[in-house]
Amino acid sequence: HGPLGRLERAPGLQQGGRIARGAQGVEHQAAQQAGRGLGAVGAVLGQQPHEFDRGRMVLLQPSPAQAQAQQMVSYLAPAGVDGAGCSYTAPCATLAAAVANTADNGQVVILATGVYGLATVTRPMTIRGEGGPVGIVGEVFISGQPTNKVLIEDLDFEGTTSGTGGYAFGLHVFNGAEVVVRNSRFRGFLSAGVRLAPVGTTRVTFDNCSFVSNPIGIWAESAGAAKVKLFRSTFVGNSDAGVRLVGTGHDVLLSANRILGSAKALDIWPGGAATSYGDNVLTSGDAPTLMSKN
After folding, report:
1. From CA 227, how far away is CA 286, in angstroms rounded?
2. For the chain, what is the radius of gyration of the CA atoms?
C-alpha cells in the first residue's frame, strides 16, 4: 500500500459535453474527420509519448455485396434498429451491424452506453464514443489485412452486465499494421481486458487508458510479434498481472503509467522484453530495462 501515498493523480478520461447538432451537420463533420484519419494515425505513432495529436484517426474492406450500402459514418445506440441505415437519426442496435455498414476508413460512432455484442473488424476504421467515454458491453476482434490501421477512442469496455454471462476479453488483436486505443477503459473481463495474438507484427499503442478488475490488463501471446507502446495509463486490481508477455517477439515500451494491485505489474516471459523511461509506478513483478527519453 505504500506507493499509493506518493502517486500523482492519474489523468482521468476526458469528458466532453455533447453539443446539440442537426443530423446533417453531425454526419458532414464526421465524414470530414474520416478523410483526415489515416494521416493522424501516422502522426500519433511517430510522436513522443506525450505529444499526441487530438485529431481523429480513422480506420476497417467491404465485401462486394456490402459495398453499395456502406457509408463513411455509421451510428450506434441502444434503442437503434439494425437494417435502418445506421444514420444519426436511425442508428443501428449492434456493433456488428454498424461495422458491416461502414466503408473503408470510415467511422462507427457510438451515441450512448449499451450492450452491443461481438463484432469483427477486418478493415481500416475508427470506433469511437460520441462526446466523451461511452460504455460498451461486448467484445471487438481486429483481424483482416496486415496493412490495416484501426483507432478505438473514448470507449468504456465492460465485461459483464445483467444477462450477458460475461465476456472473456474486451479487445482481441489478431492482425493489422497499427492499432491505437485512446481514452478508453477495460473493466471486469473474465480473462483479460485486451488480448494481443497477432499472426505477424502489429504495433499497438495505448494512451490514457485504464484497466480495472480483470485477471490480466494486457496479455500478449502468439507466434507473431506485438509491439506495444503504453503511455499515461492506469492499471488497478488486475489480479494476475498488469501486462503479461508470453513468447518471443513481444515487447512493451512504458512511460508515465501506474500499475497497482496485481501479483505482478509486469509479467515478462522468456523471449519478451519491457523497456521503461523510468517514470512509471510498478509495485511488483519483473523489472523493465531503463532507457533515456533523449
Report:
1. 18
2. 18
Are the beta carbons of 146 and 177 closer than 8 angstroms?
A: yes
183/132 Cα distance (integer angstroms)? 9
* Amino acid at site 164: T
Full DSSP string of 80-126: --TTS---SSS-BSSHHHHHHTEEEEEEEEE-S-EEEEEEEE-SSEE
Predicted TM-score of the model (pTM): 0.78
What three-state secondary structure class fits 4?
A: helix
How far is the C-alpha of 207 from the C-alpha of 262, rounded, in Å? Answer: 20
Predicted local confidence at residue 292, as pLDDT: 84
Contact residues for 98 (Cβ-Cβ < 8 A; gap 6+): 74, 75, 76, 86, 91, 92, 108, 119
Concatenated DSSP letters for 17-74?
PPPP--HHHHHHHHHHHHHHHHHHHHHHHHS-TT----S--------TTTGGG-EEEE
Identify the residue whose cell numbers are 454526419. 27
pLDDT in tens, 245-255: 999 999 999 99
Residue 113 contacts residue 95 (beta carbons within 8 Å): no
Question: Beta partners for 211?
Answer: 186, 235
